[in-house]
Amino acid sequence: MKHRIEETKDRLVVGIKANMSLQTIQQETGNLARQFMPRRHEISSRLGKHVFSIQDYGELEMKDITARTTFEKWVGVEVSNLDDIPKGMEPFILKAGTYAVFTYKGATQDFPKSRQYIFQDWLPNSDFELDNRAHFEELSENYSKYLQNIEEDVWIPIKGKD
């Protein structure tokens, strides 16, 4: 799985969120997307054509997350400012920092294997450890979990090992 290391500034996002767990993430993310995607054109300060799928674990450490642990899941788009947020949507800031960015290509049902590779193989054998910031995927606007050949960038927050 190809990857790159990127430094980013804060990125502003407008979207909708829900609390969910790893047990409910597939169904609940679909529900969020069905609520958000028809309304994305209401956002006047949108940047680019991508959509973010964000997991915000807050202060939780990844090692403490179980299938039932709840966290915030967001679906949103990047914006240039937070001046005009449509009713029913909220702002979110993807915090600046270093990210390992993995490009995933394939069927959505095969993605868990890639996620396992990132966290169980790549990360422990790298010069990095997880940083306590949101994880996110950058998706094309026509993304569908039913497509068999999707492409998405998976952004994992990292920092150098102490």
UniProtKB/TrEMBL annotation:
Residues 1-159 form the AraC effector-binding domain. It holds the Pfam family GyrI-like. InterPro entries: AraC_E-bd, GyrI-like, Reg_factor_effector_dom_sf, SmbC-like. PANTHER family: TRANSCRIPTIONAL REGULATOR YGIV-RELATED (PTHR40055). This is AraC effector-binding domain-containing protein. It comes from Bizionia arctica.
